[in-house]
Amino acid sequence: MTRQPPNTARAWVDVDLAAVRRNAERLRAHCRTRVMPIVKADAYGLGAVPVARALEPLDPWGFGVATVSEGIALRDGGVTRPILVCPPVLRDEFPAAAEARLTLALGHAPDVAAWRAAGGGAWHLSVDTGMTRAGVRWDDVAAIVDAAREAPPEGAFTHFLAAERGDASMAVQEERFRLALAALANPPALLHAENSAAAARRPNSRYGLVRPGLFLWGVWSGPGALVTPDPVAAVRARVTDVHRVTAHESVSYDATWVAHGPRRIATVSLGYADGYRRAFGNRGHMLVNGRRAPVVGVVTMDMTMLDVTDVPCEVGDAATALGADGGEAITAEELATLAECSPYELLCGLRMRLARRYLDGAAVSAGTVS
Ligand SMILES: *Cc1c(COP(=O)(O)O)cnc(C)c1O
Prior knowledge:
Layout: E1 11-16, H1 17-31, E2 34-35, H2 40-44, H3 48-55, E3 63-65, H4 68-76, E4 83-85, H5 94-99, E5 103-106, H6 109-117, E6 123-128, E7 136-137, H7 142-150, E8 155-157, H8 169-182, E9 190-192, H9 196-201, E10 209-210, E11 233-245, E12 250-251, E13 257-258, E14 263-268, E15 285-288, E16 291-294, E17 304-307, E18 318-325, E19 328-330, H10 332-339, H11 343-348, E20 355-359
């Protein structure tokens, strides 16, 4: 038997499942609809199975994923509700999807027939209203009318191209969606369109389901959002070394940071192989014992150095790269701005080398973790 070290030994992600539930409940109350949490990409890096299981008490309609394998992993994890694979799936995977009782998003008549032939059951009609990405074009629904009469879809959906901007494109897409549905002989009753940004901007959804991802994981949907999520994830890593440097001594590769005088430098066991991006070198901060400490020098693959001259810090302390510690917090938005990426990329970039630790409501600060 191999012995696993505790998952807080080196670097890990704390995931507050109670906060995930609060966020889902908040969005559900705001939209007055059922929720289909989107747990693709391992729930944006937080762990699809634990998160989906934690959401089950809220009676979600089911869950959305991006691949057949992700759907099978949820089934293996004990999820029995419907699982919709939102992007298109090639026919090679239809038998495996059918066997796992997944629901496919289809947009082409021959695929509807092939899905039935493979033993597939429920499917949702995917309508492209402007993304030019997946599904049947809104003005081409005639091509699938007969197939939809033969094997009626359980639901139909579309996806907004600029929900965060809240501009006129949403109304255009909704009108196209309406036209597409009107072209069907008997349109399904179950309709859905809104992701987090769209759902957070509009109370009382006009559809039967909302499809949030990012909001559930605690990331704000930007200006115009009417509801705000509670933070969910924190990335923490141990201080493994503390060094003293004197004037003119440098830190990390290429000597991009040079001390002006005596400084205390902490080494934290988190690097770009964990998803802590190189862009944070000489620009980002981590929290140590509730205080901000600047990243000094280049982020390396497995380690990052902090200037802790003004911060109490000892070997074994937990530094917080994302999330709260004491009264201070580093948000996904702050890090995404520094890295010139989106909060989506930032969360999805947290690598599997990081352990996941699931908390359920316990207010744990970095300083007190064991
Ligand atoms: C990813 C995705 C969502 C969820 O988007 P968020 O912005 O994370 O809420 C919803 N619907 C579809 C089709 C998606 O691909």
